[in-house]
């Protein structure tokens, strides 16, 4: 949620510029035809995996989303090493089972999706019982699969998005140990490829154009969108 709010605040100047186009005829407002939502998966946020996603709707049943998971932190407390470094990017195409007929309904309802993502990671955790940190590194993580979910309308411009997916995950990796206060020792390389429940989300999303359009219409005394 922290990253989501940061993205929202950082986008305010651009949104202000877009809002200035409110005098353009309805047929010329591309934001009215393509709902745009910025979201963050709170499950990943709770695991300190900073993430953000943008979803763009088109037609009245389809959408494309673009995702980034980018935690990058490490700590060393007297040899107790903990690291979570990850750069993962991907996208998803969704088909909403019931079309939306108004802005208030945009990006809501049950849906099916197809997704793919790839990236790299370095994850290390301290194991007190063995006095060492154990970690895994990889420069090639890939996953693709299908998911299903439901996006609930909270207000005209806020959504709660729940989803669960299954897919194929493939990665080569290097397994290593960091012995307490002494040295780093690599053990072995490996790889895995398997089908797993590989995607889950509880996401809060904010519809950029709906929020600004509501603000403009309220100032003019018009109906929303």
Task: Walk me through what this model shows.
- There is one protein chain.
- By secondary structure, this protein is of the alpha+beta class.
- The protein has a single domain, classed as Porin (Beta Barrel).
- Helices cover 17% and strands 59% of the residues.
- The chain contains five helices and nine strands, in the order αααβαββββββββα.
- The protein has helices at 2-10, 12-19, 30-33, 42-46, 208-220, and strands spanning 36-41, 51-58, 62-69, 72-77, 80-96, 109-127, 132-153, 158-179, 184-207.
- The chain has an eight-stranded antiparallel β-barrel.
- Strand 6 and strand 7 (132-153) form a beta hairpin.
- The chain is elongated, with a radius of gyration of 21 Å.
- The two termini are 27 Å apart.
- Residues 1-31, 212-216 and 219-225 have low confidence and may be disordered.
């Amino acid at each position: 949620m922290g990253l989501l709010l940061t993205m929202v605040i950082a986008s305010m100047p651009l949104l202000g510029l877009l809002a200035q186009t409110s005098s353009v005829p309805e047929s010329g407002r591309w934001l009215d035809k393509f709902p745009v939502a910025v979201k963050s998966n709170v499950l990943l946020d709770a695991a300190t995996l900073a993430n953000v996603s943008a979803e763009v709707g088109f037609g009245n049943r389809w959408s494309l989303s673009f995702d980034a998971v980018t935690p990058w932190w490490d700590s060393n407390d007297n040899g107790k090493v903990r690291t979570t470094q990850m750069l993962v990017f991907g996208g998803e195409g969704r088909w909403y089972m019931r079309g939306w007929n108004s802005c208030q309904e945009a990006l809501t309802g049950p849906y099916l999706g197809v997704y793919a993502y790839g990236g790299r990671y370095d994850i290390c955790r301290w194991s007190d019982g063995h006095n060492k940190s154990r970690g895994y590194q990889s420069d090639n993580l890939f996953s693709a699969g299908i998911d299903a979910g439901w996006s609930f309308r909270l207000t005209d411009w806020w959504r709660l998005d729940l989803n669960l997916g299954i897919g194929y995950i493939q990665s080569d990796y290097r397994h290593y140990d960091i012995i307490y206060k002494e040295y780093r020792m690599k053990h072995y390389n490996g790889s895995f490829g398997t089908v797993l429940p590989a995607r889950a989300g509880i996401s809060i999303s904010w519809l950029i154009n709906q929020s600004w359009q509501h603000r403009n219409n309220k100032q003019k005394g018009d109906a929303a969108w």
